[in-house]
Amino acid sequence: MNLQIILAGIGGQGILFSSKVFSELGLKMGLEIMGSETHGMSQRGGSVIAHLKLGKFQSPLIRKGAADILYSFEENETYNTLKFLKHGGICFVNLENVDQFNKSIMKFLKEEEVTFRTYDATGAASKIGSIRSANIVLIGYSVGTGLVPFKYEDLKYVLELVSGEKNLKVNLKALELGFQEGKLTGNNP
Q: Per-residue pLDDT tens for 49-97?
């Protein structure tokens, strides 16, 4: 399996931690890992983008139009990184209300046959008292939909491996919450 993933957001949203999670997940799946991050004023809420390749690749950066999956933890970063997504790719966005998403971009996504899912991961994370866990909620949601080739058990194992003792309990709660919501949504928009 070869898989190219873009993780996009702003400083403080756990992009680098999410990249670490997917890297360990790839290793658990027996895949080679290659990645790169770009930081733009990340400590001040600037853009942070991680390119992650699972499988056999020659270079760490993902070309425009080549990513299989885009995880966007912030709406505006979705607009900035959609160019990386391939025709027929999958996009998960942390968004409170899909109606607020740009209508012309929605039309473009349909034309490109992109599977587009939004989920209010921040709202869900606030229910467990940890807005900082929205990244894990969104990842759990994606796995629950069945649209990505990752298993819940493997993701749980990886979180147990990479989460610090202080954050493990809340990360596992965030994973479970997102996963259950994703199962309810399934493949349906």
A: 999 999 999 989 999 999 999 999 999 999 999 999 999 999 999 999 8
Which residues sit opposite 92 in a β-bridge? 71, 117
DSSP code of 128? T
Helices 165-185 and 134-145: angle between axes, nearest 10 degrees? 40
Could you tell me the CA-to-CA distances from 109 to 85, 106, 117 in Å, in that order? 10, 5, 11
Q: How many CA atoms lie within 13 Å of 146's alpha carbon, on the beta-carbon side?
A: 7
Give the H or E element holding residue 163: none
CATH topology of domain 3-185: Pyruvate-ferredoxin Oxidoreductase; domain 3 (3.40.920)
Q: What is the pLDDT of residues 98-151, one digit of tens each?
A: 888 999 999 999 999 999 999 999 999 999 999 999 999 999 999 999 999 999
Q: Max Cα separation, the chain?
A: 45
**CA 181 to the chain's CA centroid:** 15
Query: Are residues 163 and 171 in contact, defined by beta-carbon separation less than 8 angstroms?
Result: yes
Where b means 16+ CB within 10 Å and e means fewer, 7-40 reads bbbbbebbbbbbbbbbbbbbebbebebbbeeeee
Give the pTM.
0.93
